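step 3/5: co-fold with manganese (II) ion
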Amino acid sequence: MIIVMNESATIAQIGQVIRAVEDLGLFARPSRGENRTVIGVVGIVDEAQIAPLVDMEGVDQVAPYSRAFKLVNREFQNAPTVISLGDFAIGGPEFVVMAGPCSVESEAQVRETAEAVRACGARILRGGAFKPRTSPYSFMGMGEEGLRILRTTADDTGLKVVTEVMAPEQVPLVCRYADILQIGTRNMQNYALLEAVGKVRVPVMLKRGMMSTVEELLLAAEYILANGNSQVILCERGIRTFEKATRNTCDISAIPVIKSQSHLPVVVDPSHAVGVRAYVAPLARAALAAGADGIIVEVHPRPEEALSDGAQSLRPPQFAVLMDELRAMAGALGRTVASG
Ligand code: PEP
Ligand code: MN
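step 4/5: write tokens
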């Protein structure tokens, strides 16, 4: 349920409503909009208990959420969530590009890639130090040494770091090195992990489960917000369909759907969505055209030597062309590509 206050409701009246909700054993999450405050009621809500609060002073209406997700819902917060990362932000007018290798393989590989993508205008360095692999015999990542490489290289080149955290017990470690915690597609419904990243104050990029609906993605994000972390970025990375020409099927329509239902920023990962180098740039352009807040792209200086996902990694010159195209498109759409 949500409690919508009058435009003229006073701070004291809002406080009284919050206390009334808490007296019922529920949590009240007030959100101050430009004109009015909306109080989200979180917990196992009995509609009959909440409905009488409509008679309290300052209350305009008590209404059910139209969907199961609450804190991530546009009905709860209409203004877009903007995640500040120093001199740029995700979720505002700028289109933000995250780029880097699939996996951290060596200091030299990460440095070469970081310098190349930074020179083209990327703002965030991606790379996995803990890798979820389909086969237990594949390269699993460099662990903490990989995190250290990402951090020092990003600091030296003026980039931020996004990297994956795979288990709740890894969260404190990864938080020491990362600016954004990535939750991979295989972990979208790992509720213990969602709760753990909900309890920290580092932004989270939540990737859509490869077999999940948009509603399930939003409910997974709800776990993170309900645990106290409101800095969540959603990532469309392709879903499994019957189509075999691409690794996954990129659900471009998910961008406007999520934007209409939620205030959270949305980015697209065209690399994992298609899995084929030649198709990555067209999808990246489609993401910008459809209203995404950014992209996360795999780039490797020598994809043929990559320990993971070489087939979908752009070479630095291809990435440079893509960035020029994105800047031209952004101009036509009244947006800009974040640059440092
Ligand atoms: C990745 O971005 O490195 C990754 C493993 O992606 P996904 O979880 O989408 O497969
Ligand atoms: Mn990858």
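step 5/5: annotate
The chain has eleven helices and 15 strands.
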